[in-house]
Each structure stands twice: as C-alpha cells, then as structure tokens.
C-alpha cells in the first residue's frame, strides 16, 4: 500500500465522504462554504464547473432545482443534475450551457489543472481556469448572483482577486477546514453580482 493511499484512508473527510455517500471528499468544502456564506438558496439554478466526479453537484442538488454540471470527464447521473461534457476554456462551452439555461443564481467551480509538480506552471493554469470560470459567471449569472472558485495562491492571484471585486459586491478569500493542510488552494467567495453596473 502506497503512503498516499494509506494517508487517504486515514483522512477524516475521505472516510466521511464514503460513509455519507458523497463521490469526493471535496463535497465537504462546499458544505463548509455554504454553511458560512449561504451561496445556494432553495430552488436556485446552479452551474458547477469542473464537476466530475460530482461531489459538488451532489451538495448543490440538495438546494437547487437544476444544476448544470460541466466537465471534460464523464460523470455518473445525479437527480436534478444535467451533465454537459465540455472544456470551460473553449468558447463553444457558452453555447452548450446556453442550451439548458439563460440565467442562473450561482456559478461554482472546483476545477483544478492537471498537476505537473511545477508550482509556477500549476498556479498559472489554476488562474487560467478561474478566469474562464469568471467569464462563464459574467455571461450567465443573474443580478445579485453568487460565484465560488478554487484558485492556487501565487503571483497571479491578487490581480484575479481584484478582477472579481470589480464584478461583485462582497468578495472574500476562504480556506475551508476540509482543504488539506499542505494545500495552497484557496476559495474565492463572491456574492452580489453587479450585472447592470458599469465595470471599470
């Protein structure tokens, strides 16, 4: 048994995910974000980016009337979740999502780049995914809508955070308890999308 596998088996959230029927330990990150910031409301419509294997979609579907789950990797069906196979960095994704929704209440992204081990490269790719997630949020969010995205901290992070601040009334970086201690990931929580205000 590898050390990684042994550590994973000991991981509290990994065990809890198995016990509670969540597809990934990351479900607890969204549960903790929701508890603190109330991103999702009953009956809302949600776009979940980087959704596979579906941990966040499972949590979102407990609140939402409809979830559009987007990923390049296939995902097993979940009640109230529509799966869209696609790349969030390609323009055609707007058309694919647009087949199912015109406007949504929340866009959430736990998308992560394929980790190379070169931190500068991984961090830059993480920001690139977040920039594309923000583009999708700007296209589909209702006035006052909410946005959550995972980003790796690094030199491009402050600039992206400022870009989010231009578009939302409340923006907070947050590290859920379920994030691994050694991880450099942080979640940007943004509430109150300024759809109709002029952006600088």
> Percent of residues in helical segments?
25-40%
3D shape: globular
Second CATH tier, the architecture: 3-Layer(aba) Sandwich
How would you name the CATH homologous superfamily? Vaccinia Virus protein VP39
CATH topology value: Rossmann fold
Strand content: 25-35%
Oligomer: single chain
Give the key terms.
200 residues; alpha/beta; Rossmann fold; seven-stranded mixed β-sheet; 7 helices; globular
Write the layout of secondary structure elements.
Elements: H1 3-10, H2 12-20, H3 27-37, E1 45-49, H4 55-60, E2 66-71, E3 81-85, H5 92-98, E4 104-109, H6 119-140, E5 141-152, H7 157-167, E6 168-174, E7 185-193
Parallel strand pairs: 1-2, 1-4, 2-3, 4-5
Antiparallel strand pairs: 5-7, 6-7
Summarize the structure.
The chain contains seven helices and seven strands.
What features would you describe in this structure?
The chain has 200 residues and is an alpha/beta fold. The protein has a single domain (3-193), classed as Rossmann fold, CATH 3.40.50. It has helices spanning 3-10, 12-20, 27-37, 55-60, 92-98, 119-140, 157-167, and strands spanning 45-49, 66-71, 81-85, 104-109, 141-152, 168-174, 185-193. α6 (119-140) links the parallel β4 (104-109) and β5 (141-152). The N and C termini lie far apart (54 Å).
């Amino acid at each position: 048994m590898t050390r990684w596998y042994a550590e994973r088996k000991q991981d509290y959230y990994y065990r809890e995910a198995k016990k509670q029927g969540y597809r990934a330990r990351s479900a607890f990150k969204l549960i903790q974000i929701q508890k603190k910031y109330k991103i999702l409301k009953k009956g809302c419509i949600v776009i979940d980016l980087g959704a596979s294997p579906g941990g966040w979609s499972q949590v979102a579907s407990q609140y939402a009337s409809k979830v559009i789950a987007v990923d390049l990797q296939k995902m097993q069906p979940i009640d109230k979740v529509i799966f869209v196979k696609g790349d969030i960095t390609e323009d055609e994704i707007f058309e694919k999502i647009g087949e199912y929704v015109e406007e949504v209440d929340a866009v959430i992204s736990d998308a992560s780049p394929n980790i190379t081990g070169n931190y500068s490269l991984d961090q830059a790719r993480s920001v690139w995914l977040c920039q594309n997630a923000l583009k999708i949020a700007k296209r589909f969010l209702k006035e006052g809508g909410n946005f959550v995205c995972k980003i790796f901290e690094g030199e491009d992070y402050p600039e992206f955070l400022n870009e989010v601040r231009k578009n939302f009334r409340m923006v907070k970086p947050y590290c859920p308890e379920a994030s691994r201690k050694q991880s450099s990931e942080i979640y940007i929580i943004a509430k109150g999308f300024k759809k109709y205000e002029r952006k600088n």
